[in-house]
Every structure is written in C-alpha cells, then in structure tokens.
Amino acid sequence: MGQFLDGKNLADERAAILKTQVSKLKSQGIVPLFCVINIGDDPSSKLYIKTKKRRADEIGIVQKVYQLPKTQSQQSLLTLIDRLNQDKKVYGIMIQLPVPPQINLNEALEHIDPEKDVDCLTPSNVGRLWRGDHYVEPATAHGVLALLDHYQIKLHGKKVVIIGRSSIVGKPLAALMLERDATVSILHSKTKQLAEYTKNADILVSAVGHANLITPEMVKENAVVIDVGINRVNNQTVGDVNTVLIKPKVSFITPVPGGIGPLTVESLMEQVVKLTRRKNGR
Amino acid sequence: MGQFLDGKNLADERAAILKTQVSKLKSQGIVPLFCVINIGDDPSSKLYIKTKKRRADEIGIVQKVYQLPKTQSQQSLLTLIDRLNQDKKVYGIMIQLPVPPQINLNEALEHIDPEKDVDCLTPSNVGRLWRGDHYVEPATAHGVLALLDHYQIKLHGKKVVIIGRSSIVGKPLAALMLERDATVSILHSKTKQLAEYTKNADILVSAVGHANLITPEMVKENAVVIDVGINRVNNQTVGDVNTVLIKPKVSFITPVPGGIGPLTVESLMEQVVKLTRRKNGR
C-alpha cells in the first residue's frame, strides 16, 4: 500500500521556519512585501490569491493585490509594473494567471525587474535556472523537490516522466530534475501514447488539469506519483490521478488537496523572503 | 537502406542564400562582423575557428579572433567583453569553449550584451528560447532543425530522444523540439539504460562525444538518427553512432563528417546576420 506524501504538513513546517526568519528581518526594519497583479475576475484566481494571503499573513509577509479591470490596457499594466519596479518597499512582483486576451503576457513578464521576479518567469531568470544558477525557483517545482527531499526520494539516475510543458510547472521542473541527474521525459497534449512513457516511470509527475487522466495500468509498480493537477469535479477538488485506485500500487503518492498545492503557496513565500534578503544583503 | 541526411550540401545551399543577403547589407554600408574570444591553445578550438573563418569569408562575414593567453584573467576578459559590447561595428560576440579553469564562464557569458549573443548563451536569450520567443538560436540546434525541415521530417507527435544535456546542444535542442510538439526525453551520463529509451525513439539525437556509443540494437527500425558527436579515432573523424552498421536499419542518418558539423557553422553565420539586421532595423 502506497504512502501519502503529506505536502500540507511539510508546508506548515517550512512556514514555521520562514516565520522565524521573517520576524528577524522585521526586527531589522525589513518587511517582506510582494505584489500580485490580478487582471479581470477569474474566480480561481481570486481563490488562489486568498489562499496566498492566508499563508502570507501567517508568516508575516505582506501581500498587496492590484486588482485591475478585465479591460485593462497593456500600456497601463506596463506603467504599473514600472512603478512597482521602482518602489523600494516592493521585493516581489507577480502577475496572476490567466490574463485577458488583450494583454501581451510575455512583454509584461519581460518588464518585471528580474530581482523582483518572484515567479521565475522573466527571461533571464528562466535562463539562469536552465544553467543551474537559481536566482529564484518557480514555486511549484520548488515545492515538488522539497517534498521529494523531505521523504528522501532520490532523483539521481531515476526515470522521470513529466506530463505538461507549461512555463510555470513542466519546463522548470524538467530543468531542476535534470540538474539532479534524473533522466527526464516531457509529455504533453500532442504525445500519442502517454502510457508508453508513464508505465516505465520511477517518478511520474502529472501537471495537466484533467481529472482521472492517470489510471492504474499507466503506472509502474512502486512508482512515486506527484499530482500537480487541480480539478473541480462534483464540487470536489481532485488531481489528475485516480488516487483511490493507484495508491495501492505505488510506493508514494501526493494527495489532492493537501499535496503539492500547499507547498506551492509556501514555496512562493520562500522566494519572497529570498528576494527580500538578497536585496538587503542578508 | 537508410538515406544520408546531407548536411554539407544543405549548409552550402543556405550559405549561398546568406551570401546574397550579406552583399545587400554591405551595399548599404552594413558589414556583419562577429568576434570570437579564444582563451588558451586548445587544438580543437583552433580548428573550429579556422573552419568558421572559411565559411565566414565565403559568405562575406567578418570573423575577428581575440586570441588570449591560457593565463588570461577573468577581469581583463570582462573588460574585453565590455569593450566589444560598446563597439558599434561588432554585431556578435562568442567565447570559444572550453575555457581554462580560472575563467568563470557563467559570469563572462552573463556579461555579453544579449543583443550580441550569437551563441544564445546569455540567461535572457536562453529564457526567451524556452518560452518560444527566439531572439537567436543556438547554432547546432538550429542546424538540426534546418536539416529535418529540409528532408520534410516532421517533429509533431514524434518520440525524440536526445543524449546529452549540454547548454550548447542538448538543452536548447530539447526546447526547440518540444516547441515543435515532439515528446522529448533527455538522457545523459547518469542514465542507466540508454537503450531502454533509444530503442523506442522515432528521432534519436546523440550529442555526447563518444565513438560507437550507439550500436544497431539500440536503434528502432526506420528511425531517424542525428549524430552530433565529433570524435577522433585512428586519425579519422567519427560521430557517436556506428554508421556503417546502423545505416541499413534506419530511414535517415547524418554522416560524420558532412552532417551536423557544416550546418552548425553555417547556422552560426545565420545568427550573425540575424543580429546584424536587427541592430540595423533590417
């Protein structure tokens, strides 16, 4: 019977450590503050922002939300980013995804000062990540590695399969796992036979957003399964993996909720603190 | 019986087109010029520089070599890069690899103006590549795609295996092939069973530098084999692939020499011209 990888508990543990670090910074007059730019009124975005706010409050980090209308122009978005780039009290800037179609996201991201790029989405920070020089780490990928490390699951020489090639999860996770000497396969919507890959994976990561995508016959006996998917089915939050059926077959599996989700939020806070410390030479 | 993918011929064809473009630029008073910084006296480096020089001359591009001593200090390297960054006549700057141990290569690369980064090794250009926004393309990866395109070998939905995770070949090639909707596996020295992956690959790329690494039983019937390796064995240049034994089994294979090598050099010249045109608004 597989064991759950308890992301919620690890996130709480790490948050407690972070809280102590933040107290110390505050006692020196340094307040970790980051800004979330939210454009439009996507209900999931609002929920994520609320979840982040709760964790930030707990740790002592200030999250400032810039709520912009759905009709927001590109130009005034860039002007806002410029202003936040200049603001010495701001240590992190992130754009909540998704953005409305009139927004050129790449241009907006490229506008963020890499020193305040808490999501690791500016070109130079992405490039640094790929060459093993981590200025910041994307929250989800950081969370996945923290969880594997906590349970002493090694990546060296392992066969890793990542489903999903997004800039926020699949690609950066591939970079970090490759750096840890895993052999990495990146699958996506155009991959014809997912199972051909997944059934050989020592570590399987699904980051698609498709409930029940991963069924038991797709998973190797004693594999480690990391479920990054978040889907709403019958008013319940579920991942990409059919956990009930797969848990008996594997060695470790993340629950949804309570797996990677809380670690992503907590990891984001770690990046805010990292950027704050660096900016203040701490 | 497999067909050779004739990189030499394609490189010559593309060079002829490039030559016309360069003539036109020159008639407008614009001279494509790039600088190669070579530190120490690695014989292979000197050979590569000579090969590049020959192609540059043919096309009408100026290659300027800065030959620095093996004992070159980091500081004076950075000063040289600064000077070339400032020089309006210089459109491309590259550091010939390898560099001696006292040189901090990452720092030096980060020093190059991304607008002159002809090798696509500065962090921001690497990051742009990974998000599908190609400011420049690394020469070898560009050459591989040009060759596949020329022979109308599609990447969409294909199973690609890349052996080698270097910053100059394996990683950028993975980015470009993923963008073309291939499913990409990245293998390396810590991969335990190369054959487990290679024998299922529709397209197999070896970029290791190890003669006879790829034997017939590792390759799928009718696969496409791209050999990026360059090895000297008994005074002959050979790739990573045992071509004689493998050619009968596959549909296409690159020869070594005459495959990816000439395309890499020609692709570099394309990048020089691309940067020159962009800088001049052409």
TrEMBL record, chains A, B:
Listed PANTHER family: C-1-TETRAHYDROFOLATE SYNTHASE, CYTOPLASMIC (PTHR48099:SF5), C-1-TETRAHYDROFOLATE SYNTHASE, CYTOPLASMIC-RELATED (PTHR48099)
Family: Belongs to the tetrahydrofolate dehydrogenase/cyclohydrolase family.
Binding site for NADP(+): 164-166, 230
Subunit description: Homodimer.
Name assigned to this protein: Bifunctional protein FolD
Residues covered by the Tetrahydrofolate dehydrogenase/cyclohydrolase NAD(P)-binding domain: 138-279
GO CC aspect terms: cytosol
Coiled coil location: none
Residues in Tetrahydrofolate dehydrogenase/cyclohydrolase catalytic domain copies: 5-119
Annotated GO MF terms: methenyltetrahydrofolate cyclohydrolase activity; methylenetetrahydrofolate dehydrogenase (NADP+) activity
Enzyme Commission number(s): 1.5.1.5, 3.5.4.9
One Gene Ontology term from the biological process aspect of the record: methionine biosynthetic process
InterPro entries the record matches: Aminoacid_DH-like_N_sf, NAD(P)-bd_dom_sf, THF_DH/CycHdrlase, THF_DH/CycHdrlase_cat_dom, THF_DH/CycHdrlase_CS, THF_DH/CycHdrlase_NAD-bd_dom
The entry's keywords: Amino-acid biosynthesis, Histidine biosynthesis, Hydrolase, Methionine biosynthesis, Multifunctional enzyme, NADP, One-carbon metabolism, Oxidoreductase, Purine biosynthesis
Biological role: Catalyzes the oxidation of 5,10-methylenetetrahydrofolate to 5,10-methenyltetrahydrofolate and then the hydrolysis of 5,10-methenyltetrahydrofolate to 10-formyltetrahydrofolate.
